[in-house]
């Protein structure tokens, strides 16, 4: 089963119910080499489900001292596709190793937009 690291709205119960039909259970973990920035969401469905116009977005720095706390969820392949449908075009799904050593999917700004 795939792992999904969430640092934002996918941690919200109402977003999980709307997208997966269930509340996810997960464990705390940390992502290194990224910082959190913000992005304005204009997609009506995402606005309705999250209740927020400003969402966090990960930006890659490559600096392992930059850390983002979040939750890692074990989900199905089908739920991973549903998460892809939820995330707007400002995000891309990438794989990264978390501080715990687990390999997980996450949604971040495209690398060409993240470079400092």
What is the averaged pLDDT score? Answer: 92
Shape: globular
Low-confidence blocks of residues: none
What would you say the CATH architecture is? Roll
Q: Order the strands across the largest sheet as they lie in space.
A: 1-5-2
Write down the CATH class: Alpha Beta
Q: Would you give an account of this structure?
A:
The chain has 116 residues and is of the alpha+beta class. It has one domain (3-110): Hypothetical upf0131 protein ytfp, CATH 3.10.490.10. 25% of the residues lie in helices and 39% in strands. The strands form three sheets. It has a three-stranded antiparallel sheet, with no helix packed on it. A hairpin with a 5-residue loop joins strand 6 and strand 7. It is globular, with a radius of gyration of 13 Å. 27% of the residues are buried.
What can be said about this structure in brief?
The chain has 116 residues and is of the alpha+beta class.
Helix and strand arrangement:
Layout lengths: L2 E4 L6 H8 L5 E7 L1 E7 L3 H7 L3 E7 L6 E8 L2 H10 L5 E6 L5 E6 L2 H4 L2
Antiparallel strand pairs: 1-5, 2-5, 3-4, 6-7
Keywords:
single chain, 116 residues, alpha+beta, Hypothetical upf0131 protein ytfp, 3-stranded antiparallel sheet, two-stranded antiparallel ribbon, 39% strand
């Amino acid at each position: 089963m795939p792992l999904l690291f969430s640092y934002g709205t996918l941690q919200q119960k109402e977003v999980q119910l709307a997208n997966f039909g269930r509340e996810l259970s997960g464990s705390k973990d940390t992502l290194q080499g990224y910082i959190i920035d913000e992005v304005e969401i204009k997609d009506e469905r995402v606005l309705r489900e999250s209740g927020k116009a400003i969402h966090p977005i990960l930006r890659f720095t490559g600096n392992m001292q930059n850390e983002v706390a979040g939750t890692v969820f074990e989900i199905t392949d089908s739920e991973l596709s549903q998460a892809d449908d939820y995330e707007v075009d400002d995000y891309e799904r990438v794989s990264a190793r978390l501080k715990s050593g687990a390999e997980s999917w996450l949604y971040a700004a495209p690398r060409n937009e993240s470079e400092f």
